[in-house]
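Dear colleagues,

As part of the handover before I leave the project, I'm documenting each prediction I ran so the next person doesn't have to rerun anything. This entry is a single chain, and its sequence is reproduced below.
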Amino acid sequence: MTVAETERAEAPVVGVTMRSREQAPPREAGPPLISTRRLNAWFGQSRVIRNVTVDFADRAVTAVIGPSGCGKSTLLRCLNRMHETVPGAIVEGDILLGNENIYKSGLNAIAVRRHIGMVFQRPTPFPTMSIRDNVAAGLRIEIGRGPSRQKTDEIVHAALERAGLWGEVKDRLNESALGLSGGQQQRLCIARALATSPRIILLDEPTASLDPLSTQTIEELVYELRQTIAVVIVTHNMQQAARVSDRTAFMLNGELLEVAPTTTLFTAPRDSRTEAYVTGRFG
């Protein structure tokens, strides 16, 4: 699929409210930052991703929608080489970060994950670490030691600022991360991912377990992050996809059926199955 589609329709499908143009002016899709080519993935004998070819643009938010079990989360896990950590899991095809295949022989998976961060559905702070050490954890995981303490503190500060959390925790950095609220913990996990200066961040239903106010805060953060990095967000919430994303991809039974500018996909989808899903007739 191309990342240069710019066609826009005027009205959303029933039940989905698009962002206002004042809040989110139209923007051209940038060049692809990460791409899949005929990607397939298995859990044992079960194929859960089927010949997916798609480009994810730099400095843009791409939402991935579809019913439960359609392969959305597996796609994300393939993108940062976490799928292969499951016993019996297999990946075939190519995933290109820029011009480099992240599955090429000899390329360290941990090194890949420093460039392709991931945040999961439920907040996953490290329970035995302080807030500061949670954010800094990824800085030393690859080489066994991190930067100097002063440099680490600067990185932690910057990551917490980008995650919109610094003002809330600056006086609590040495306290346990478990003392934070659920929404704060999720932003802490985003800060941890941002600390390694990734080129892309993957969010797997990051607000599914959060209250509406925390959800709004995360959505605003996601929309800000697109100014500097690529974001791919899996969501079951089509209203959320409409609010935060520049492009939306629809998956069904492991296949990528359609990817288009978000307004186009929700107002004038090409595939009848996409239309049935976004209008609530199944899923």
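The two ends are 24 Å apart (CA to CA). The chain has a mean pLDDT of 87.

All the best with the project,
I.
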